[in-house]
Write the structure tokens for this entry.
Amino acid sequence: MTSEATSSSGSTDPARTGNLSNCNANSFILEAGWVITMDAHMRVLREYSLVVIDGRIVACAPWLDAMTQYPDLIVVDRRSGILMPGLVNAHTHLAMNLLRGFADDKPLKTWLEQHVWPTEAAYLSPAYVRDGTALALAECLLCGVTTVNDMYFFPDVTAATVLSAGMRATVGLIVLDIPTAWAGSVDEYISRGLSVHDTLRDEPLITTAFAPHAPYTVSREPLERIATLSAELDVPVHMHVHETAEEVQSFEREHGMRPIARLDEIGLLNSSLLAVHLTQLTDAEIVRLGEAGVNAIHCPESNLKLASGVSPIADLIAAGVNIAVGTDGAASNNDLDLLGELRTASFLAKVFSDNAATLPAAQALRMVTIDAAKALGLAEHIGSLEVGKAADCIIIEPGLGMLPIYDVLAQVIYTQSSQYVTDVWVAGKQLLQHRQLLTMDTDKIRHSAQTWAAKISK
Amino acid sequence: MTSEATSSSGSTDPARTGNLSNCNANSFILEAGWVITMDAHMRVLREYSLVVIDGRIVACAPWLDAMTQYPDLIVVDRRSGILMPGLVNAHTHLAMNLLRGFADDKPLKTWLEQHVWPTEAAYLSPAYVRDGTALALAECLLCGVTTVNDMYFFPDVTAATVLSAGMRATVGLIVLDIPTAWAGSVDEYISRGLSVHDTLRDEPLITTAFAPHAPYTVSREPLERIATLSAELDVPVHMHVHETAEEVQSFEREHGMRPIARLDEIGLLNSSLLAVHLTQLTDAEIVRLGEAGVNAIHCPESNLKLASGVSPIADLIAAGVNIAVGTDGAASNNDLDLLGELRTASFLAKVFSDNAATLPAAQALRMVTIDAAKALGLAEHIGSLEVGKAADCIIIEPGLGMLPIYDVLAQVIYTQSSQYVTDVWVAGKQLLQHRQLLTMDTDKIRHSAQTWAAKISK
């Protein structure tokens, strides 16, 4: 046994040791004060270790047992910390971090049409996507997010940036009726998307989703092709659906039906659909989404900030809809703090259902872990700390603002806990250590963010 | 001039230097990248210094000018930071930090009657108030809060703990119909309160407010006495008003009028009233509150978490009501992050008014600075960075999650900025330095929080 005592100097980094035969960078024993497993029994274990070999979880056992059973593994001591699965942010536009705070206090239509789209038209490029995505991923790691479901242009660049950071992502193969720097036509969006899908097929940390922007920006014919391709290739469909009242009303005026009815007609309402926002729903639509097995992606803070509305998630839960939570892009949030987003989601669900018991802590936490993994089709690999799954996990060291601890789940959700995330691993590789990023250059990211802002502000 | 370059080692602490005649602990030049003044013109200055002598602001000038004009003062270099007024948390129950996470996901009535009140009955004591308040104040400083408006038992202990931390507070002289460890009768609540008021009269950092708990827990006669005393002594009245629908309805059944009508009858609706919560208001009540000059204290997160409702602050603003924001106690929030609370307040105001332009960043920030100071009757002394006021100020060093910066006000409010508060001064005395508490013992506070929780959990 090689035990390394905890210290703030970083000496427990398994990546920096590894002189034993059975000890590579992705094999170690991780000791924690609490282990929030997010397994089917929602077990929370006190004074347990996670045993990781070659990036996979092979055991979860009391401290002493783990050391006895795996004497050759190095020990990472986080005995005062809370260990839990890495978080899954189910809706991002990572590169839009470069527009954080660029145009606040504006409704969605004005914000998109007068500010975001013209700026993107002027600056969108692989470099823009690379730098914005890097800024966002650094923020994600510092908030305990290990997996993102992203939708943006140049998904190949997004994937490369995610891989360089060592993270996990579902990258969206975006489709729009209007041309951009990424593609000049619907055909080109789809063909470039399929080519990205093929290139990334063997990357263990990356999956893809078709990402038609929204029913009001992608016409019927490409949506039909996407429905077919999604079924053939078993690839999810990630789409904004019923984000604002105005968008639903104008669609209805033009097409004589609501967007969800159109999606149903096309065959897109199924368990492969990740329907984002859903702030405008009739009772019948809620029932239909439940029957069809659609996944709802709830982005409460963006919906509040743009005054789009509030998704009726208590009703969606009652209808059996699987729900994941996303931050949306930082330009309409303005942060990627997923645990903070979940807190907002829980609070809103309580007040809108007139019941403080709605969406209690444990149920809420599923929406950024196991239920989010399910939505992305990744529940066999991530979303809970169970034997056989990848070691995507984080440590939260309870700060003063989380004390005292009566119920660790409640403290993780109802306090600003993400600021206390100290360590992050993806597939057993450590990416954050004592709040220091190990795979990204913080100074370079800061500098490039300010350089882009200076250019854009001109 | 004694210039000390910035460093993370803490060498710029003026309290640790001071070998020059004109340089005491509370006199220094504080250089910042941005100065958010919160003055009448809402000026935001780039590359300015605040000049502080004997704890008061004597000038605000460009970096070079300040050094030239005050060559004998030491210089605290926070050139990459955002300098702004210390924040004012307008409604707290500090000692309740010990019950953070003790009973979540329950509505107000159950939460109070079955969980909080029985526990308080069992454990309430001066030691409980001291330890809970210390935990809360440490959290406040780490969130940039320098002034609190508190309501709890043993306000003498609260005041002593605040003074020991070097902070500023309005302590509530609580009154209830039911007896507690603090007082056995309404008469005793009032007499003990007056005695605390007299004792603290000459403390520059402490003021008092009468704090009758609520119209449904304090009967008419003591409220009448408090109305008279408030006018005679020029002391504000801090009270929960219309927090839940149930409380309003049951009052109406019992008394044939709504609580606000009762307060109006008694003469309590005036500019000395700090009316907390106000989630249940008729249009006529909103108009009346505006006419009467009442101050509304908005606590959105507690109201959401207990499913109490949402205060119609866009309408209150339109009626001319002065609004401050509070976190409420950590047992119903569950944190004291005031900037996070303000973000929630702004988001809710937007969605409930169906307008993303409602409560823009600059207006929102007034509610935790100058408008909150106004509500407490302290606007001559604090709430903005202006010559003649006390040097209650904080530094936020923009983290990755705040970048890039287009509009510094928006980034302070719409991102999780409180985690980046690095330094805090009250009346020119530094209380937080590079996120280290200078006047409080962190280890002792952590230990006592866990000790109390262990006792209470039994």
User: Anything to note?
Assistant: Residues 1-23 of chain B have pLDDT under 50 and may be disordered. The domain at 87-375 of chain B is CATH 3.20.20.140 (TIM Barrel).
